[in-house]
Amino acid sequence: VRRRSQLMSEFALIRQFFTALGAARADVALGVGDDCALLKVPAGQQLAVSIDTLTAGVHFFADCAPAAVGHKALAVGLSDLAAMGAQPAWATLALTLPSADAAWLAAFSAGFAELAHAHDVQLVGGDTTRGALSVTVQVHGFIPDGAAVRRAGAQVGDVICVSGTLGDAGLALRGMLAGSAVAPELQQRLEYPTPRVQLGLALRGLATAMIDLSDGLFGDLAHLLTASGVGAEVALAQLPLSPLVAAAVAQADDWALPLASGDDYELCCCVPAAQLATAQARAAAVGVALQPIGRIEAATGVRWRLPNGEMWCAVAGSYDHFATS
Ligand code: ADP
Ligand code: MG
Ligand 1, closest atom to CA 125? Predict the structure, then answer.
């Protein structure tokens, strides 16, 4: 049962924390405050839209720093925009909160706002309800008509590339679940992922296919290959790994760590072999490493080649919320 006084304070908190959040964009005719936002998509551009929910206890620990929850809730959406080559513009936010905790909301909105400002994103609306802690963010971005980089489009002979490093967030999560000390740089990768927005834009017109790695390369590359109707060979020795993840893989021969633990928020793209150097130069220009890891082949499925030349047989898939086993 909701008491009126509680409702009033919730509206006050929305006003305080969410009315002027992020950039102030000229293409927002009307933002937070009315029944709808009024938004102007530039002529000749398509609107790219994606929505993600983060639920306490599933996607983040209930006691996770609220600034990190705010950051990550926006970051995962921006990563989807990046994977299409879209320029971020607007976001909406549906918040379900167990209580109107002003300190929590202040830190949450600050974490959200910092990333929003960094990508010139304006929060233009949302919804606030009471219940178990859950955060849903819809992001909106622009792509010139027909310029989106889709999952479909990979061609036989293309080089498969991955940005940044894989498995850092997974190693952090593993440590936190085990109650052991977690290196700060790994915890940062789990809680404050960096969406590769500038890289996505830089690869527009060059990448033949692209996907962002939210569930792990093992599953996400399969999505790209299925959409493109092709297969691949990947050299595990070429996976970009941070020293800590490389050590963990070497210690237990644990390839599932970089391949299937998820939350990487790196980009996986395919580029024609003749364009690899250009793609890497464009990535370097935006401060991100782009590592070639394999080739597109006609035969469907993925051949994961171990450093010793043998083939790796997958024992773990990527994260599936509805998996039955
Ligand atoms: P309505 O009842 O007409 O749907 P609401 O009371 O839900 O309106 O919201 C009032 C205004 O506040 C709307 O402009 C809505 O977009 C905005 N809003 C509500 N919750 C949030 C939020 N968490 N973040 C941003 N804007 C919000
Ligand atoms: Mg509403």
Answer: 16
Q: Where are the alpha helices (DSSP H) in the chain?
A: 4-18, 66-84, 102-118, 168-178, 184-191, 197-202, 217-228, 243-252, 256-260, 276-285
Which pLDDT does position 5 carry in this prediction?
45
What pTM was estimated for this model as a whole?
A: 0.94
| Cβ 320 under 6 angstroms from ligand 1 | no
From the CA of 92, which ligand is nearest?
A: 1
Task: List beta partners, residue 161.
Answer: 269, 292
Which atom of ligand 1 lies at the shortest distance from residue 35's CA?
A: 3
Q: What is the DSSP string of 260-299?
A: HS----EEEEEE-GGGHHHHHHHHHHTT--EEEEEEEESS
Query: What are 21-47's pLDDT values in tens digits?
Result: 999 999 999 999 999 999 999 999 999
Helix (H, G, I), strand (E, B) or coil at 90: strand
* DSSP codes, 121-135: -EEEEEEEEESS-EE
Model confidence at 273: pLDDT above 60: yes
